[in-house]
Structures are given as structure tokens and as C-alpha cells.
Automatic annotation (TrEMBL):
Lineage per the UniProt record: Bacteria, Bacillati, Actinomycetota, Actinomycetes, Kitasatosporales
Domain dTDP-4-dehydro-6-deoxy-alpha-D-glucopyranose 2,3-dehydratase: 35-237, 253-454
Protein name: NDP-hexose 2,3-dehydratase family protein
Pfam families: Hexose_dehydrat
Superkingdom, taxonomy of origin: Bacteria
Natural source organism: Streptomyces johnsoniae
Length: 461
């Protein structure tokens, strides 16, 4: 008796069409009206009690410095630790440095639940409090949970809607990829970025709302509304943009990137936090002697909308607002982005594709001439007519305090961004980055924010 083997299509282009329709939609009767969003978010803030207070390390409940290493860890042995690393690159302007870093080896889930209403894909978004956000409450994915959260190490309430992402057969997977987090502040951290479509009726919790991709794009034009975890998932949306061609073939782009990775000679070594050079631990902070980059602080938190109503934890607080942007040009009528193969000590492969510029300017104010970061001064001096997109977005509010970056797309010409850029830079189309982001450890978290802006239609280049 013969057996018939059924083969599946390797790619479903209908998925791309679903996202394109959603990006073009300003909303439907099923979604929360964009004009009503600010009032809805303010109402969710008033409906709950939130408090975040800075406290000395001695007042962090359950956290302590290990007597042998000085590492800052929780008594449960879970969640995360603050440890130290040394990084040796051998290249100017920073051939060697040491720093504290967050080590959180567990993989979390960042999940968007999607459903069609009136033929348009909607996303279930959450008004979620994070202690590090300057305005506390921002729009997050349906599920934003570490493994410790959804396995209830903290013995708190269940994570709402988690079954759609951890139980097989609950829906149709539209996107699913492991992506890195901030490589400057996390050591080897990644999350599973997922979009799952359901046909089930979904009970709508008060802190959740349905929005189209186009509505989220409109909100991405506002400061500090859509959080980092939502942005990284939206970057993984397979888009319907046509790619008329590119300066480099897809293989050529990957080959250039593989070459950059291969010639990087980076040595990253874990070391006890107590022996990290140039950093000083005080009662309420761990910081560099020169005051640059960031410091580690402690906070006490109350939030009755979270799985646990109160807790305390350390956070990384950067010094200053970052500037993160792509320089853009059109070649043959096709928009291109100047990507940077950027080394960051905490990345598993040390190098990922980043925006043209990704710096906190104050950290480089002491450098002059050729030691200044490439393209930074040009972006800082860009006249408004060349800025196609600009918004301030918060970074990960669960681990970073008041971490914000000014995100931009800036039009450039040959004098500002040459056709043949420096060796660690390359021109790529948005469609090429969209293909690469379907795979792990190609596109860094800052570039994914700007890709989310494009995917949602917040700007057209």
C-alpha cells in the first residue's frame, strides 16, 4: 500500500498580504480608535497604583552581593545577576575595557496575538507598567514575560494569554524567531519573538486593546508610547514591500557581513563584579569614576497590575539620551539604509547589523578628529528638512531606568554617506533587512526599532 506524502509551500505570501492590509488600515470598528488612545492609556494609568522609588542596595529585598565575587544576585538563584566582563578588541578608540553587565541566560517570550476583524489583521496590545520607563505605562506585546515570570518563580498571578504561545495548536504562527537584546548591557540575552494568529474569541482584559498595524504605526510617531518589546516583535513582520533591486545581492550582503564577523578579534571574559576596573560601588550605585556610560542603581516597585504587586530590583541607568539613526539614500530609485556591522561585547556573535549611528553623544564628547564615531556629527547636525522620521523611544523598561534614544531616518547625499562607505558599513534595502530579521542574530535591537517603524507604515522612505 503506497503512502502519499503531502508537501507544503515553503513560504506563504498570503501572510505578507495580511500584514500589508493591516499596515494600510487606520482602524476598524473592532479596534480602539487612534484618537481615543491617549485617553484610554491615561485611564489605565489612573485605574492602577504605581510607585517606583530609588533605594540603596541594602534595601533591595532578596538581592545581595556575593561575598566571593561581588556579583549582585537574587536569593532564588533566578531572574538575573549583575556581573562583570572584560572586553579586548585591540582597535581604537577603545581597545580594552571592563564593565558591569546583566547576565540573564533564560529565554523569554515576546508575543503578539493577532486576529482578523472585517478582513483586517489586528494585534492584541497591552498597557504595561515597567519600572524603568520614564512614564511607567507603555504599549507592549500581548505577552512580555521571562521564563521566570511565566513559570511563576515569583509565585505571582498567571501571565495573561500565555497559552497561545506555549501550547501547540492554539493558533497559526506568523512569525517566530530568537532575537538578541541590548548587547552593551546584556550578556548573551535573547528572547523568542512571536506573532500568533487565532480564530478563537478572546476575552478582552481591561488593560488590553485591539489595534491594526497602521494604528501602531501612527503611535510610533509619538514619543515613549510603544515599548521596545513591541517594537522588536513588529520588526519581525514579513512585509509585502516589493524589492526592485539593490546595490548588493542578498548573497553579497551576507558575504560582506560574514567577512566582518570573521575578521573581528574580540575577547570577552566574565569576571567578578568586585574586580571590575574603573568602576566604584557605593551604597546606592555602581558607576564609573569618570561618570560616563551608565550606572547600576536599585529601585523598590509597587504595581497592582503586574503578576506580582511589589518587588525590588537593580536597574541599569544610562548617562544621557542616545541618538540612533539610519542614513538613507536612493539608488536606482530604490531606498537604501547605511547599515553598520557593530561590535557589542554582550552579543552572542559579537557583531550584528546596527543603524548607521547608535551612540550616546556625551560618552564621546572627549574624543576629537578621527576618533569620533563615524557619521555621528553629521546626524547631529542634520537640518530638519532631511529628517524623515524622529521620535524618542524607551529602551527595555524592565531592566533599564530612564533609558531613551532619539530614533531617526535622515536623508543623505554622497558627501554625507558615500556610495563606498568605510569597511564596516554597507548599503542594504529595507527589504533585505526584513529578510535577515527572519533569522536570529543578524539585526540588532536598535535597528529592529527602526525596521518596525517601516513595517508599520509610520514613515515611507
Amino acid at each position: 500500500m503506497s503512502t502519499v506524502t503531502m508537501l507544503r509551500a515553503r513560504r506563504d505570501d498570503g501572510v505578507r498580504e495580511k500584514f500589508a492590509r493591516s499596515a494600510a488600515s487606520p482602524g476598524t470598528a473592532a479596534s480602539l480608535g487612534t484618537a481615543k488612545f491617549a485617553d484610554w492609556l491615561a485611564g489605565r494609568r489612573l485605574a492602577h497604583h504605581f510607585r517606583v522609588e530609588r533605594v540603596p542596595f541594602a534595601q533591595l529585598d532578596g538581592w545581595s552581593f556575593a561575598p566571593d565575587t561581588g556579583n549582585l544576585a537574587h536569593r532564588s538563584g533566578r531572574f538575573f545577576t549583575i556581573e562583570g566582563i572584560s572586553a579586548e578588541t585591540g582597535t581604537a578608540p577603545f581597545p580594552y575595557w571592563e564593565q558591569p553587565i546583566i547576565r540573564q541566560p533564560e529565554v523569554g517570550i515576546l508575543g503578539l496575538l493577532a486576529r482578523e476583524f472585517d478582513g483586517v489583521l489586528h494585534f492584541l496590545m497591552q498597557a504595561k507598567m515597567e519600572p524603568g520607563n520614564r512614564n511607567l505605562l507603555q504599549l507592549s506585546p500581548t505577552v512580555q514575560a521571562t521564563r521566570s515570570n511565566y513559570t511563576k518563580v515569583h509565585r505571582g498571578a498567571d501571565v495573561k494569554y500565555i497559552d497561545h504561545f506555549v501550547r501547540a495548536g492554539r493558533g497559526r504562527v506568523l512569525a517566530d524567531v530568537l532575537q538578541s537584546e541590548h548587547g552593551a548591557w546584556f550578556l548573551g540575552k535573547s528572547n523568542r519573538n512571536m506573532i500568533v494568529e487565532t480564530d478563537e474569541d478572546v476575552a478582552l482584559d481591561d488593560d488590553f486593546c485591539w489595534l491594526t498595524l497602521g494604528q501602531i504605526g501612527a503611535l510610533l510617531r509619538r514619543d515613549n508610547v510603544v515599548n521596545m518589546d513591541a517594537r522588536t516583535v513588529l520588526a519581525c513582520v514579513p512585509t509585502g514591500r516589493a524589492d526592485e533591486g539593490a546595490l548588493h545581492s542578498d548573497l553579497g550582503l551576507r558575504s560582506w557581513f560574514a567577512g566582518v564577523r570573521a575578521r573581528q578579534d574580540v575577547r570577552v571574559t566574565r569576571k567578578p563584579l568586585a574586580r571590575v576596573a574603573d568602576w566604584v560601588r557605593g551604597p546606592s550605585g555602581i558607576e564609573r569614576e569618570d561618570g560616563r556610560y551608565f550606572r547600576v542603581v536599585g529601585v523598590s516597585v509597587e504595581a497592582d497590575s503586574r503578576e506580582v504587586g511589589g518587588w525590588s530590583q537593580p536597574l541599569i541607568e544610562p548617562r544621557g539620551t542616545g541618538v540612533t539613526g539610519f542614513l538613507t539614500r536612493r539608488f536606482g530609485g530604490v531606498p537604501h539604509l547605511l547599515v553598520h556591522a557593530r561590535m557589542e561585547a554582550g552579543l552572542l556573535d559579537t557583531v550584528e547589523l546596527a543603524p548607521t549611528v547608535q551612540y550616546t553623544p556625551g560618552n564621546y564628547a572627549h574624543l576629537a578628529g578621527g576618533l569620533r564615531p563615524p557619521f555621528l556629527d553629521g546626524v547631529l547636525a542634520a537640518e530638519p528638512a532631511r529628517v524623515r522620521y524622529e521620535a524618542v523611544h524607551s529602551e527595555e523598561g524592565g531592566r533599564f531606568l530612564n533609558a531613551e534614544s532619539r530614533y531617526l531616518f535622515v536623508e543623505a547625499d554622497e558627501s554625507e554617506a558615500p556610495l563606498r562607505p568605510p569597511p564596516d558599513y554597507c548599503w542594504a534595502t529595507p527589504a533585505q533587512l526584513n529578510e535577515l530579521v527572519q533569522h536570529s542574530r543578524y539585526v540588532n535591537v536598535q535597528a529592529r526599532t527602526l525596521l518596525a517603524v517601516l513595517n508599520s507604515g509610520a514613515v515611507t522612505l
